[in-house]
Design goal:
Number of strands of chain A: 29
Distance between the termini of chain A: 78 Å
Radius of gyration of chain A: 24 Å
Oligomer: homodimer
Strand order of the largest sheet of chain A: 5-2-1-9-21-20
Helix content of chain A: 25-40%
Chain lengths: 455, 455
């Protein structure tokens, strides 16, 4: 081993970034590799998708975060494989050798082997969020152009698959967009006619929370025009809607032009090249110290690791990743300083659960901490405070705080841009000056009330 | 004509939007058609391209702006042609009839007939700005990976073509990104080695301003590592750089991986379907009241119109478009109210020039108003105040004010995200733990100082 151990970290999410930060004063060289130049504050990504926040409010250049870490450098690159025998990471266009490796490349959604990603985008990165935002706000534009009531209804129907925190947060926001944000903005359609359908395979929303809180969340969703359908599985998705199989084996069809995916977990494929046992979702079965079997110099932290504590799987949440990253950094720092022999006498990782929260919408959330389960406005205030606290940097805190206060007071969303391709919208059937629809050639004109516009 | 005249406005820029707003209380129905859902505050678009502001800080949903205008509706659609004989606008997928038409579809950059758009993007919409941001920040990532000094220099060289306000503002910001924003963020390259080359065909930058101010701007650019080259024309652009022809007929070659375009004016092609005389740039030669010859019910405002006042062309700036939009709205409102017979006795449009400004960078701008020409910090404060004042809405004002203050204090830029495709970067030639470069197979390794990282 070289004099100064080289620690390579794959992934700049919560696990990888917190490991790099915790290694600041350790006598090591750190190389953090990510295919993006920014870290994302994942818990608020749904707010970018629903136009409440800007991408850069919740995304920070990794280089900026590690600017003052003189032992760290950042490489914009994608890791393709790990060669544990040769101790190197294979990139698209080169290789990087390591003394210690921390794999923190996380997980993405699982479409259960189906080719549904294009039809029902998930929410993992900024690009995903902007794509969802584009689809949601374009749906209203399409509905406004549409004259057939059934087709209009399909544009104003949004299906969200999966009722974990992300699915619940998305659904609540989708309801509020129609009921509040867009209420006054259209002339032909009533955005308040929005219909959100939240599909869940299990028997309740937010299965990780106590039952009482699930019920409170479901009630809060109901007030936002979200229809919760539990115990049903998606069997088909196409451009016109979703087919679901219910608990009794029967099937049902929902006509919806917008389907969003918040279900399943599929670990980063990088795990496969480690040559160690994986669980069904492709996550690495890590040792007590978060290293992999047979390779004490390789660690896996965050969503990519599978670990059982007190008989329960550790959940795929930020806190587990952050604590895992810090734990591993401490182990490596101690060995680099010579306080322990490499790989010997390492402390086991123990996750300290500070509690969990989910937000349903304006003034409504649920929170479950060690002793207390609360819902409603107080939980929402807690959620608010905790998320502002965990944001990185003064700038983001101020911007998010202001944006939230502004939205709360005005019922608006500040980032309602449609960017990218507009795509195919229904043809314009416009009200001409003589009160007749001006139609594309070949279609018959229908007389309409000329003053309908001036409602 | 129907009882309530139908006013169709094409384009939601300054001209179209201000016309729609000014028609709020007129007895007309207004349909504003734009291919995007948002209005852009164009003067600050370069700040999105250079990561100082977020897209939504300077872009507003047109529907929101016109939310309370009960006589107005918004249609997301692209106009393809205008049939002045039949008084209708032809869309991609339908038609809209009008009693009055206001064409405000503006202008874009002219590449003088060359196919350079992909090689040298211009700055007209949010997508353009994000593409420029992506290229600029990726260039530094590429330079950090590059080991050949000449290739590294080409990545750190930015060429801007055209030294009008946009070109100057972009150049100044590009210099500051290297000198200030990224100063501490890289390990192998010194971002302060940035080299910006501003190319201009005329004999000075900011030709529309007094000579003294041009000289002040050029000096301020020099301090930001911007090399101003006047009197030269671009003859070739490719992926490796730019070829220019100098005043004496000789040619020169600049190796640069990033070229941005801020030159030329090309009017919206929609003008051609009006069947009236156009100028060389494709702009419509409008009558004194901004209507087109032979069609008093059709107006052209903003960058798409060509009008001479006091012997000088009206410039393609926001103020001209805003004032033109308001002027036309007043004429239409008076006729709709019956105060004048349609097309009779209309007042001529007269542009009131409030002055102009351009910003070079941190604490540096120039301003030329009726009597005063100033440069430096005071002009910058003026620029700051005026732009905050003209922004639409309380939210944008607060966010932009805060972002600017934060940037001014910290020398940072808050929106430094690279989104979209990363594309091809130089291969990674990484410093392995033994102090040797780990190269892609087939390339020879070179010994390097193992502690070079810990500078």
């Amino acid at each position: 081993m070289a004099k100064t151990p080289h620690v390579v970290i794959l992934g700049g999410g919560f696990g990888g970034l917190f490991a790099a930060v915790a290694l600041r004063k350790a006598p090591v060289r750190v190389t953090l590799i990510d295919k993006r130049n920014h870290h994302i504050f994942q818990p608020l990504l749904y707010q970018v998708a629903t136009a409440a926040l800007n991408p850069s409010d919740i995304a920070y250049p990794i280089r900026s975060v590690l600017q003052d870490h003189k032992n760290a450098r950042v490489l914009l690159a994608e890791a393709r494989a790990i060669d544990t025998a040769a101790r190197k990471v294979v990139l698209d266009d080169g290789e990087v050798s390591y003394d210690y490796l921390i794999v923190a490349t996380g997980a993405t959604h699982s479409y259960f082997g189906k080719d549904w990603e294009r039809l029902a985008p998930g929410l993992k990165c900024i690009e995903d969020a902007l794509e969802i935002r584009r689809r949601v706000f374009l749906a209203y534009e399409a509905a406004e152009r549409e004259s057939d009531p059934a087709a209009q209804r399909a544009w104003l129907t949004f299906v969200v698959v999966g009722a974990g925190p992300t699915g619940v947060e998305l659904s609540g926001a989708l309801g509020e967009i129609g009921l509040q944000t867009l209420a006054q903005d259209f002339r032909r359609i009533d955005p308040g006619g929005v219909h959100v359908i939240l599909l869940e395979g299990r028997d309740r929303v937010l299965g990780g929370f106590p039952e009482k809180l699930s019920a409170a969340a479901a009630a809060a969703l109901g007030k936002r025009r979200v229809e919760v359908r539990t115990g049903c599985m998606v069997t088909e998705i196409d451009a016109d809607g979703v087919t679901v199989r219910l608990g009794d084996g029967s099937t049902d069809r929902v006509a919806a032009r917008t389907v969003l995916w918040a279900a399943g977990v599929q670990a980063s494929p990088l795990a496969r090249s480690l040559g160690v046992p994986l669980d069904r979702a492709g996550r690495v079965e890590v040792e007590a110290d978060l290293s992999i079997p047979g390779h004490p110099e390789v660690f896996v932290v965050g969503d990519l690791a599978h670990r059982v504590q007190d008989g329960k799987d550790l959940p795929g949440v930020c806190q587990v990743a952050m604590q895992g990253g810090k734990h591993v950094a401490k182990l490596i720092a101690a060995e680099a300083r010579g306080a322990r022999a490499p790989g010997q006498g390492r402390k086991a990782f123990r996750y300290f659960d500070k509690g969990s929260m989910a937000v349903i919408g304006r003034s409504s959330a649920i929170a479950s901490t060690m002793r207390v389960n609360i819902s409603g406005f107080l939980a929402w205030l807690m959620w608010w405070t905790v998320h502002i606290f965990y944001l990185i940097g003064f700038r983001s805190r101020v911007l998010v705080m202001f944006s939230w206060m502004w939205s709360w007071l005005t019922f608006r969303r500040g980032a309602r841009l449609i960017t990218g391709d507009v795509g195919a919208l229904p043809p314009v059937r416009d009200l001409g000056p003589d009160g007749r629809l001006v139609l594309p050639p070949g279609e018959a004109a229908v007389a309409l009330d000329p003053d309908a516009l001036q409602r």
